[in-house]
Design a protein that fits this description.
Elements: E1 2-6, E2 14-17, E3 19-20, E4 27-37, H1 39-45, E5 56-57, E6 62-69, E7 81-84, H2 94-97, H3 108-112, E8 123-125, E9 128-130, E10 142-146, E11 150-152, H4 159-180, E12 187-191, H5 197-206, E13 211-215, H6 219-227, E14 232-234, H7 241-248, E15 254-259, H8 264-272, E16 274-282, E17 304-307, H9 315-327, E18 337-341, H10 346-355, E19 360-364
Parallel strand pairs: 12-13, 12-15, 13-14, 15-16, 16-17, 18-19
Antiparallel strand pairs: 1-2, 1-5, 3-8, 4-6, 4-10, 4-19, 6-7, 7-11, 8-9
The chain binds dephospho coenzyme A and zinc ion (2 copies).
């Protein structure tokens, strides 16, 4: 099959034919229909997000059609339409049974090493092993994934829209609805309005937030944020963003702020933008040795600083729900797609992302 393979840090992915083994017990072979290109893929390629070592097939925002199932698979059958979840969970541990599968530590360990849950890879070229990425690896025509990483969806949803739910939409909307539980009438600031941040903006709309302040260095992203429901706009190039947010909120700050970039300094900005009793949610992941400093005294104001992974997703419940909202015209997915591309154009898609030219590029297989 054709794949984009990550061989070397800070170098383009190589488009080539590689081999894919059949699905083993508890695994599913999916014909990938569409894959979004997310900033986190780029963060692995440039060493910002830790990954054991290349070669690997990246891509973690995919959807497709089940082609074949391994033994003991009961959740899906060939022909089913599915989203690939990059955070499969065991369903049995304390986190899983108390409704926080995003924190499950059981299956995730092998996946972090670049393998499927049984600790081995189905991807190779000749005698060389190629690693998986988050158990998804959607920068390829086919993917063998763990059954626990599969979410069955209704068949009438376009698979390119479904793919986006697999990462950016779940991560952004989920951070607002699940992690922060924003209430109607709240004020919200979103720092970073890229493919994921725009979904935090539309999550705030869904939650009934009143004031939604979009913050981005790129005026084009602020324009997009307006389309997604932001009510106020802040460009840090025009002055300190925290001061600007305080100026828009009676000097007190917002009820909720979301950092959706992946930098320690903007995470501190999110914290400093919230009012007493407010909550700052950090969605982005900064470099492993980055530290953030917040004023210790500010805790006297009962401020909350928390992280969010995958929008605190319960994939089998939340992803079909998001698609229902899309089908009922209450969630924007088509508007996220700036470009539909071929797999061969993937390196250009990373360049467009770095230049801030796109919300999302989507590979159509
Ligand atoms: N101030 C304001 N805006 C900024 C600044 C700044 N200092 N720097 C960059 N921006 C804006 C850019 O103009 C851009 O619009 C936006 O921030 C970033 O958008 P994208 O499209 O490049 O990135 P996304 O939305 O695809 O990804 C953002 C993440 C936060 C998810 C990602 O980068 C990250 O941190 N990933 C690691 C965390 C993780 O694994 N998350 C789950 C999988 S994605
Ligand atoms: Zn992502
Ligand atoms: Zn678990």
């Amino acid at each position: 099959m054709k794949a984009a393979v990550f061989y070397e840090y800070n170098a383009p992915l190589k488009i080539e034919e590689i081999d894919l083994d059949k699905p083993k017990r508890g695994e599913v072979l999916v014909k990938v229909a569409a894959s979004g290109v997310c900033h986190s893929d780029l963060s692995v390629m440039n060493g910002t997000l830790p990954f054991p070592s290349p070669p690997a097939v990246l891509g973690h925002e995919g959807a497709g059609i089940v082609e074949e199932v391994g033994s003991d698979v009961t959740a899906v059958k060939p022909g089913d339409h599915v989203i690939l979840s990059w955070r499969p969970s065991c369903g049995k541990c304390g986190y899983c049974v108390t409704g926080r599968p995003q924190l499950c530590q059981t299956i995730g360990m092998a996946l972090l090493q670049g393998y499927l849950p049984d600790g081995s890879s189905r991807l190779h070229k000749g005698g060389t092993e190629i690693k998986h990425f988050t158990g998804v690896s959607s920068f390829a025509e086919y993917a063998v994934v763990p059954e626990a990483g599969i979410v069955k969806i209704r068949r009438d949803v376009p698979l390119e829209a479904a793919a986006l739910v697999g990462c950016g939409v779940m991560t952004g909307v989920g951070a607002v609805i699940n992690t922060a539980k924003v209430e109607p009438g709240s004020s919200v600031a979103v720092i970073g309005c890229g493919g994921v941040g725009l979904n935090a903006v539309q999550g705030a709309v869904l939650a009934g937030a009143d004031k939604i302040i979009a913050i981005d260095l790129n005026p084009r992203k602020l324009e997009l944020a307006k389309q997604f429901g932001a009510t106020h706009f802040v460009n840090p190039k025009e002055g300190d963003p925290v001061t600007q947010v305080l100026g828009l909120t009676d000097g007190l700050g917002v009820d909720y702020a979301f950092e959706v970039i992946g930098r320690a300094d903007t995470a501190v900005q999110a914290y400093n933008s919230i009012r007493p009793g407010g909550t700052a949610v950090v969605v982005g992941v900064a470099k492993p040795d980055d530290m953030m400093m917040i004023p210790a005294l500010s805790l006297l104001q009962e401020k909350t600083l928390k992280g969010s992974i995958y929008g605190s997703a319960r994939p089998s419940v939340d992803m079909p729900r998001l698609l229902e909202l899309y089908m009922n015209k209450k969630l924007k997915l088509d508007e996220l797609v700036s470009r539909r591309i071929k797999l061969e154009e993937i390196n250009a898609a990373f360049e467009w992302m770095e230049k801030g030219e796109v919300a999302r590029s989507v590979i159509m297989y």
